[in-house]
Amino acid sequence: MHSSSCARASIKAGATTKPSDGTATSKETSQGRKSPGSPLTTESAVSTVPTMVRGDWVLFHPVYSPAELKAVEVLHQEPKTVADKAAKALVIISRKLFDVFSLYKAKPLPPNYKELSVQYLRDNGYILDEKGWLRRILFLETIAGVPGMVAATIRHLQSLRLMRRDNGWYGLNQRLRGMVGVLNACFHRIHTCLEEAENERMHLMTFMTLRRPSLPFRAIILAAQGVFYNLFFLSYIISPKTCHRFVGYLEEEAVYTYTKCINELEAGLIPEWTSKPAPEISIDYWRLSPDAKMLDLLYAVRSDETTHRFVNHSLANLNPETDVNPFALREPDMHTKGKKISFERDEAEAYVKNSHDLIEKK
Fold first, then answer.
1. Is 203 known to sit in a ligand binding site?
2. Rounded mean pLDDT, 319-335
3. Is 251 annotated as a binding residue?
4. For the domain that residue 268 is a member of, what is the CATH number?
5. Number of domains in the chain
6. pLDDT in tens, 242-278
7. Annotation-wise, does 305 bind a ligand?
8. Quick check: is 51 in a domain?
9. Is 115 known as a binding-site position?
10. Is 321 annotated as a binding residue?
11. Domain range for residue 125?
12. Would you say 347 is a known binding-site residue?
């Protein structure tokens, strides 16, 4: 299996040139302030020449090694600002509404649960059956795919409106000026957001092969998605940083949910899935083994949610006016993303510099 730390785009051999001497230096900004010569900051878009990308039928997404799949931990980003606390509070409210719509009681297992039958635990609201888990997962994934598409749409429209490459978090540092052979889109926050949205949609498409939602369920999704999309759209225009923090907290809940599902499956509390083969679409998408089971699928999906948790919390730690997307060229492997909640700004800066050094060596 390929590691999730692979670069986003393959560079055609011999197509790159050395960067020019125009490396980032302290320059006067439009407000008269000086921008430090940092690989994390930029003041303008940078042109590159696209050549060739080697990929598959979907946007970039990590494929995890067995060790990476087991490296995920349930972590929490402590809120530091008023905006962070507001984002966390909104996620808590959303979680409670989510529990209501998915008929989840969230009762802790009794100490002697191993002595009780699965049916008893289900009848008394301690655990969900496979239909309950699918209902919960389907609802989660229909909503989880919204933020990435909203963010990408807003950044895309701004790029068209201003008639320039995507900037700020979404641009590329001056240190890469003059380099060719890397796909333009990979440097954009637009592309990262689209990857997240498509990844969440693929989660939905995968689990929908196991259950077709009823009409009432679809009606609830229609209403929830309509409200959430428009609220998130307006919120992202006002404060993208807060919105990324909100998504980071939302993904924390997703990681917790999938971890709980995995634990129950491994404990024999979802017997219907014990030997159930993973859907064919998941074997193709995550490059699972041909004999993969539902447990393998859940581990892969949880790793995806961990990636979104890490990326969004990291972006929320940056300056949206000057800092670039540190994950434009590559992402850390799951041994980092699974055990660390986010990059602080100085860590993101070091990571961007390391990415630049790797590109220059090519």
1. yes
2. 85
3. yes
4. 1.20.1260.140
5. 1
6. 999 999 999 999 999 999 999 999 999 999 999 999 9
7. yes
8. no
9. no
10. no
11. 66-170+185-361
12. no
